[in-house]
């Protein structure tokens, strides 16, 4: 696998880069090992498959290091954080670091549990390439509101890229900020959309050396797919399959036509 570098011709045109990474994901069949919550497992696998990747999902501690080694990237999601997942996460991160695999942290509901927050901070100390969170999760981790200066300062101090998703998605490496204005309101009414989107971030991080651009490209893909699915969906029940269809059929032309990036 050859990574796209930040100096490539598409690196400064986010829709074009997103389309390029989608094409490569489909041709190279990037494998993501997703240690994710039980609610999100099926949708995470389906999103990766629709985008062209390959998922694996075991949370068994005796298997996770081996599945991580044979994958191209690791997703760590803190939802349904039972004892087995805590052990699996620690082993998976160690394997990713030992074998040079990028890993992405999704600190689900850290604002709801002091023990989960403590565990998330321990994970952060082990240098995830990208942190994907929402405003409430960031507020708990950083102990401040999620404005651009706070996001940049947190990214710099932890040596990571932050992808903060919400009505507007903010992605920063501590210096640059990318804002993405795509996405549909129905995304908030379907469980695991955000969790599954983080798996796509992990896949793109295995393909592209610039973590900011990889994260922003993946967030753009999910946002545009949400817009396309929401245009015809009649509610959450029809939105979910429409979203997967949109990801499956997405291309550079659609991303360029519908992407709203600033």
UniProtKB/TrEMBL annotation:
Q: Does the keyword ATP-binding apply?
A: yes
The name this protein carries in UniProt is Hydroxyethylthiazole kinase
Give binding positions for substrate.
Answer: 192
Entry's EC annotation: 2.7.1.50
Stored InterPro entries: Hyethyz_kinase, Ribokinase-like
**GO biological process assignments:** thiamine biosynthetic process; thiamine diphosphate biosynthetic process
Task: Tell me its cofactors.
Answer: Mg(2+)
Gene Ontology molecular function terms on file? ATP binding; hydroxyethylthiazole kinase activity; magnesium ion binding
Q: Which residues bind ATP?
A: 132, 165
The UniProt record lists the keyword Cell membrane: no
Which keywords appear in this protein's UniProt record, sorted alphabetically? ATP-binding, Kinase, Magnesium, Metal-binding, Nucleotide-binding, Thiamine biosynthesis, Transferase
| SUPFAM superfamilies noted in UniProt | Ribokinase-like (SSF53613)
Pathway per the UniProt entry: Cofactor biosynthesis; thiamine diphosphate biosynthesis; 4-methyl-5-(2-phosphoethyl)-thiazole from 5-(2-hydroxyethyl)-4-methylthiazole: step 1/1
Q: Which Gene3D superfamilies match?
A: 3.40.1190.20
Which species? Microvirga makkahensis
Highest taxon above the source species? Bacteria
By sequence similarity, the record places it as follows: Belongs to the Thz kinase family.
One Pfam family recorded for the sequence: HK
What is the protein's known function? Catalyzes the phosphorylation of the hydroxyl group of 4-methyl-5-beta-hydroxyethylthiazole (THZ).
Reaction(s) catalysed by this chain's protein:
5-(2-hydroxyethyl)-4-methylthiazole + ATP = 4-methyl-5-(2-phosphooxyethyl)-thiazole + ADP + H(+)
């Amino acid at each position: 696998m050859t990574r796209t570098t930040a100096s490539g011709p598409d690196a400064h045109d986010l829709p074009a880069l997103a389309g390029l990474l989608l094409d490569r994901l489909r041709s190279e069949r990037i494998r993501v090992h997703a240690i994710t919550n039980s609610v999100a497992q099926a949708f995470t696998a389906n999103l990766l498959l629709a985008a062209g990747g390959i998922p694996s999902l075991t949370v068994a501690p005796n298997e996770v290091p081996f599945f991580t080694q044979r994958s191209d990237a690791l997703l760590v999601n803190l939802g349904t954080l039972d004892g087995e997942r805590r052990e699996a996460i620690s082993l998976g991160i160690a394997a990713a670091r030992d074998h040079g695999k990028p890993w992405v942290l999704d600190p689900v509901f850290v604002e709801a549990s002091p023990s989960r927050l403590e565990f998330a901070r321990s994970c952060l100390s082990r240098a995830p390439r990208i942190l994907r969170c929402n405003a409430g999760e960031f507020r708990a981790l950083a102990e401040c509101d999620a404005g651009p200066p706070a996001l940049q300062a947190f990214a710099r101090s932890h040596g990571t890229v932050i992808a903060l998703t919400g009505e507007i998605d903010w992605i920063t490496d501590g210096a640059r900020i990318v804002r993405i204005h795509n996405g549909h309101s129905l995304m908030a009414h379907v469980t695991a959309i955000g969790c599954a989107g983080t798996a796509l971030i992990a896949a793109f991080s295995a393909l592209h050396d610039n973590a900011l651009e990889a994260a922003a490209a993946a967030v753009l893909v999910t946002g545009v797919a949400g817009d396309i699915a929401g245009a015809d969906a009649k509610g959450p029940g029809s939105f979910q399959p429409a979203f997967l269809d949109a990801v499956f059929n997405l291309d550079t032309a659609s991303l360029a036509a519908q992407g709203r990036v600033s």
